[in-house]
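Usage

Read records sequentially. Each one opens with the input sequence:
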Amino acid sequence: MAAKLQKAGLVTLLFHLLTDAEADEQSNVFGIEFLAERLLQVAE
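and closes with the structure output:
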């Protein structure tokens, strides 16, 4: 998907919202509020 966006002239950014340790906890993987907060932190 990123390649198609880049070909169209758009910039893409890839980052992980969870550390390896956080990803081991299933509640974090599906925790929408947790992930949303992390996404807001990345966007700042």
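Summary fields computed downstream for this record:
- Residues 32-43 form the longest helix (12 residues).
- The radius of gyration is 13 Å.
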